[in-house]
Write a structure and sequence with these properties.
5-stranded parallel beta sheet; 4 helices; Hypothetical Protein Ychn, Chain: A; alpha/beta
Amino acid sequence: MDDIHDDEFEPEIVKRFMYVNRRAPYGTIYALESLEMVLIAAAFDQDVSVVFLDDGVYQLKKGQDTDAIGMKNFSPTYRALDDYDVEKIYVEKESLDARGLTEDDLVIPVQVVDSLSLREIMADQEVVLGS
């Protein structure tokens, strides 16, 4: 039994990660890379939250036509978040309102929260990463 190390039996450390998406889905690689980071963190059983605010709300908009810009529409990939047990998906209400969007315009179910509530949710995270 001396060959067994105690650290082999320690429970996994789970951290609360929040990924904040503020940028439009196309024109840079930030939106797609953020989605990839979320899926990777979730695959490692971390407590993952995702936030969309400012132009980041466009990442979730239904009916994106990317033919004119020659890029693949990756918005359907957000449906994979459910497969990775990412259930804490927040959209700032003020950002939706400013862009004339509603929850019905989005490709996945989300929790719409006002900016004050969002600040409180962010304060509860251990790691906040933005793109």
